[in-house]
Design a protein that fits this description.
Blueprint lengths: L9 E3 L5 E4 L2 E2 L5 H12 L5 E2 H8 L8 H15 L12 E4 L2 E4 L7 H17 L3 H12 L14 H27 L3 H14 L4 H13 L3 H19 L5 H12 L57 H13 L2 E5 L6 H10 L5 E7 L9 H8 L8 H8 L4 E6 L5 H14 L3 E6 L9 E5 L5 H16 L7 H13 L4 H9 L6 H6 L4 H4 L14 H9 L4 H9 L7 E2 H8 L5 H9 L4 E3 L6 E3 L2 H10 L2 H23 L7 H10 L1 H13 L3 H18 L2 H14 L5 H17 L3 H18 L2 H17 L6 H15 L2 H17 L3 H17 L3 H17 L3 H17 L3 H17 L3 H18 L3 H4 L4 H10 L3 H12 L3 H13 L1
Parallel strand pairs: 7-10, 7-11, 8-9, 9-10
Antiparallel strand pairs: 1-2, 2-3, 4-6, 5-6, 12-14, 13-14
Helix pairs in contact: 1-2, 1-3, 4-5, 4-6, 5-6, 6-7, 6-8, 7-8, 8-9, 8-10, 9-10, 11-12, 14-15, 16-17, 16-18, 22-24, 23-26, 26-27, 26-28, 26-29, 28-29, 29-30, 29-31, 30-31, 31-32, 31-33, 32-33, 33-34, 33-35, 34-35, 35-36, 35-37, 36-37, 37-38, 37-39, 38-39, 39-40, 39-42, 39-44, 40-43, ...
């Protein structure tokens, strides 16, 4: 990020909102006037309509008259531009169309400087430069003066942005401490890390770093204690186990892995960029004897199995090991996942002389009868209290299997604690949809079956049992894994589906999954009622929820995939959300996605369908509106930064949230809210473009425009840019040109200079590709000037890239090289990797024009760093396509043919063709490679490339460039 003019206004949002001019503070007026400025800062230079400003600033209050907002704007202008002459146009807080924009240099806003420094620090840390990382991260953290947007705590317009910044702050602080540890200052870091985990006890990375610092400081017992503390904290508050990183570190600490020792020189430490830690050797559970007949027949009451037990070999071994080590083991998981069957199989594998004894609690409704029920199962008549039961069992060595404890949780926990405390040889294996919460309890989460493995095998066995003559054809065999995946791998659902083979084909069962509760019925009559139909199983869990938990369970069903705590709070519309969410996790109705930080959660599709169906229609409509608002905030917040150094992280985040954007589009269009769909599409345009979601983006935008014939130009202009850019990628330059012309008109009508300039920039490029007679040099030069007027360096870089490309097409190679070099420099100065890579790609073509394939390959090698940071499908394919041409010019046509075959195949899979997108160069590049080899040889080598995935193709290209 460049330097800021000393006389320019500077803004601080990392604490109370403030502004400075010439080094002195600026008076910003009262809270609402300051809120106006905050909304404009969050918009990051984009126009915010007056209507939206009033809605955000006066949230929850009657909106003011437009005159009130105008007064605030005028007062802010006078404060921020005191030397501006009367009636002179504003240069900083400007009027644009129906709203206002703050044209501040990003480097003048402390949040932008912080984010760029934090990203640079992380890259330095990952690159093995801890000294530089510590310097950058310290500088970044020193910018903070308090909570982000501290004046506006709880204000809707600031919540998402403040949460984003606070998350970056926490990550930067952890990175700085990681750098200190790598530099050998582990002992000094301990105090800060202890304070960090006390303040943020659910962020696992802080515990990782504390453990490592303690271990390297010779405090190994305290390192182990820290690991126990975080394990207990996560179990108590979220009902989950630590993620893989902490588990790996715990194993290494227990094994005293030498890689945890302080390095003699600057190297990466455990879980801090080095190789993954190996697991400590696991204790092997006692195996069942091979000759079961020789085993003495135990006293007990376990029923004989009536059907085969499929899979779960690792689960059986794990539970057996836990029962050897712990006296209370609880199997948790959602209804129908197979907890009871796994518990019975684990119990059958034991060799206890006394038992195991099964106590089925599902039919018990009175907690007072619990001791007597257990006593009756053990054959002890007349025992009716916990004390009497403990006295009888005190001398016995046995295993109790307590099945279905969730509806009597407190009573079972109290009784189990009392019995285990007084009966030293007693062990208990419980099944429950949430942990008992007893001291010393080991909790084992039973996960669904792998749909393509054990899930498919279970379906086949149960289908064969239901219909002995059943013989699936090859098409059915291919459908079964997908059917099991649609059933979430839940064994009960798979068994109920398999039983339907008596009446329905595999295809019919799969097609009926949208109404699964009507189809998955008629289980065996000897099973409990809750296991005879899928709906009854879910309803059993549902009725155990309290009102707040039930309301949250229903509302979270609008999420199409995973979500984090902030998303849950925004969409659920109830506060606080953490207690109810923690309860749903404990009760196995919400799953935690392991290894995520911040933690992400998800709901199995079966549970989601049940919760969605049970949600009241009015509540559903309100929840979907909140979901749409949240999705739009996520998209717009990311879109403002997708052309800068944070692009890679933001593209990954948008990819993760893509199912939610699809759900938001669908619900908006179903409600006839085309304006919303256009806004969301405008915000997601660059994400679609970079990630190659061409057909999807065009489809959503077509529906959105059809649903919003009267949308305002401030909405249509941005959406039109999306249609234009995606049409270009689809190989339709004439359509792209027509759309970009319309976008410029709409940008002018709305007063949106960024839309207007963006449209002008690509009007030249698309017009030339489409063969439209235009004054291309004049248009390109005008586009550069208009882009400079926006103050957006990323747009200037793109304008220069287009101008340089045009110079090359017109045969002016010296001008092309000079302008493209300026484009690369401008793009790199603002962190716009895509523009830097695209300008360099054009420079590659310029080198190829002169027959200099080696120089072109050297330029390509310089683009690889940016490619490594982004999963940009289309940019990778066009680069590989041009590299193939350069290889051919360098006498390596055989290697080029393999690359061309790979580009063709991957492009077909994503709906993208470099030859259609780039009709000027694409066909020429392909022809040059094809004509350099005999047809049969080209086809043989291209066929090898068609077998490669995009990652494999990229790896091959990198290897060729290295050689």
């Amino acid at each position: 990020m460049g330097r800021v003019d000393a006389d320019a206004a500077r803004f601080g949002v990392l604490g109370p909102l403030r502004a400075e001019l010439g080094g002195g503070p600026v008076g910003l007026g009262g809270l609402r006037q300051r809120a106006v400025l905050a909304v404009l800062l969050i918009a990051r230079g984009r126009m915010v309509s007056a209507e939206r400003l009033m809605s955000d600033v006066w949230e929850g209050s009657p909106p003011p008259s437009p005159a009130t907002l105008h007064v605030y704007i005028s007062q802010l202008r006078r404060a921020l531009e005191p030397e501006r002459a009367a009636r002179a146009p504003a240069g900083l807080l400007v009027r644009e169309g129906p709203g206002y924009a703050l044209r501040a240099d990003p480097a003048a806003v402390d949040a932008e400087r912080f984010a760029d420094l934090a990203v640079a620090g992380r890259h330095a840390l990952d690159g093995g430069r801890p000294e530089q990382a510590e310097e950058l991260l310290t500088e970044a953290l020193d910018l903070w003066r308090g909570p982000a947007y501290a004046d506006f705590d709880g204000a809707g317009f600031a919540v998402s942005e403040a949460a984003r910044l606070e998350g970056l702050r926490a990550a930067a602080y952890e990175d700085r401490l990681a750098a200190a540890i790598r530099l050998g200052r582990h002992a000094a870091a301990v105090g800060e890390l202890e304070a960090l985990v006390a303040e943020q006890p659910l962020r696992e990375r802080g515990w990782e770093l504390l453990t490592l610092a303690l271990y390297r400081s010779g405090r190994r017992a305290e390192a182990a204690a820290a690991l126990r503390a975080v394990r207990e904290r996560l179990a108590d508050e979220l009902g989950i186990d630590p993620g893989p990183a902490l588990r790996d570190l715990e194993a290494a600490v227990l094994a005293q892995d030498p890689r945890l020792d302080p390095p003699p020189a600057l190297t990466t430490g455990a879980r801090l960029g080095g190789a993954p830690l190996s697991q400590a050797p696991a204790g092997s559970p006692a195996a069942a004897p091979a000759d079961l007949a020789a085993k003495p027949t135990p006293a007990g009451n376990l029923p004989f199995a009536l059907s085969s037990f499929v899979g779960r070999t690792a689960d059986l071994a794990a539970v057996g090991g836990l029962l050897t080590e712990y006296r209370l083991v609880t199997l948790t998981g959602p209804g129908g996942v197979g907890k009871s069957r796994l518990a019975l199989e684990a119990a059958r594998a034991r060799t206890d002389d006394d038992g195991p004894w099964l106590v089925e609690l599902a039919g018990l409704t009175s907690a007072e009868l619990l001791p007597a029920t257990i006593a009756a199962c053990l054959g002890i008549p007349g025992v009716a209290s916990a004390e009497a039961l403990a006295a009888v069992l005190a001398g016995r060595r046995l295993l109790l299997v307590l099945d279905n404890c969730e509806h009597l949780l407190e009573a079972v926990a109290a009784l189990a604690g009392a019995l285990l405390g007084r009966c030293g040889a007693l062990r208990a294996l419980a099944t429950s949809r949430e942990a008992l919460g007893v001291e010393g309890e080991a909790v084992y989460e039973v996960l669904p079956l792998d749909p393509a493995g054990d899930g498919t095998e279970l379906f086949r066995r149960r289908a064969a049992a239901a219909l002995p003559a059943w013989s699936p054809d090859p098409g059915d065999l291919d459908r079964i894994p997908g059917l099991c995946a649609g059933l979430d791998g839940i064994p009960l659902a798979i068994e109920l589906a398999a039983a339907q083979c008596r009446m329905l084909s595999i295809g019919q069962i799969a097609a009926a999954l949208e109404n699964r509760f009507d189809v998955l019925v008629d289980g065996p009559i000897d099973l409990p009622a809750r296991h005879r139909a899928l709906e009854a199983t879910v309803a059993w869990s549902h009725h155990l929820l309290d009102p707040a938990e039930r309301r949250l369970f229903h509302r979270l069903s609008v999420f199409a995939a995973g979500f984090d705590l902030d998303a849950a709070a925004a969409v659920a519309g109830q506060a606080p959300v953490l207690p109810a969410l923690s309860a749903l996790v404990r009760k196995s109705l919400i799953a935690v996605e392991p290894g995520t930080a911040p933690r992400r959660y998800r709901m199995l599709e079966t549970l989601r369908q049940y919760a969605l169906r049970e949600l009241d229609a009015n509540d559903l409509a309100g929840t979907r509106r909140r979901h749409r608002a949240w999705a739009l905030t996520q998209a717009e917040s990311a879109e403002r930064r997708l052309h800068g150094p944070q692009a890679a992280e933001l593209l990954a985040r948008l990819t993760r949230e893509q199912p939610e954007f699809r759900a938001a589009f669908a619900s908006a269009l179903a409600d006839g809210d085309g304006d919303y769909a256009l806004r969301l599409g405008g915000a997601l345009y660059w994400f679609w473009y970079r990630m190659g979601h061409i057909a999807e983006g065009l489809s959503w935008m077509s529906d959105a425009f059809a649903a919003a014939p009267d949308a305002g130009p401030e909405v249509r202009g941005r959406a039109r840019l999306a249609v234009s850019g995606l049409s270009y990628l689809a190989g339709r330059p004439a359509e792209a040109y027509e759309e970009v012309l319309t976008a410029e008109r709409e940008g002018q009508e709305a007063g949106d200079l960024v839309v207007q300039a963006s449209a002008r920039v690509y009007q030249t490029h698309f017009g030339v590709l489409a063969g439209i007679p235009i004054d291309a040099p004049a248009l390109a030069a005008g586009a550069v000037g208009l882009a400079r007027r926006t103050g957006e360096d990323w747009l200037v870089a793109e304008a220069l890239m287009v101008q340089g490309t045009l110079a090359r097409v017109m045969g002016d190679r010296p001008a092309a090289e000079a302008v493209l070099a300026e484009a690369v420099a401008t793009a790199e100065s603002c962190g716009h990797d895509w523009a830097a890579g695209s300008a360099a790609w054009a420079a590659m073509k310029t080198a190829c024009d002169g027959g200099d394939g080696r120089r072109a390959l050297g330029i390509a090698a310089g683009i690889l760093d940016a490619l490594d940071r982004h999963d940009d499908v289309t940019s990778r394919l066009v680069l590989i396509h041009t590299v193939a041409h350069a290889l051919t010019l360098s006498g390596r046509a055989g290697q080029a043919a393999v690359l061309m075959g790979g580009v063709e195949a991957v492009g077909r899979r994503v709906g993208f063709s470099p030859e259609l997108m780039d009709p000027f160069d694409g066909p020429r590049e392909a022809a040059a490679v094809r004509e350099a080899l005999p047809p049969a040889e080209y086809e043989r080598l291209a066929a090898q490339g068609r077998e490669l995935s995009l990652p494999e193709l990229t790896t091959l290209m990198i290897g060729l460039l290295d050689n």
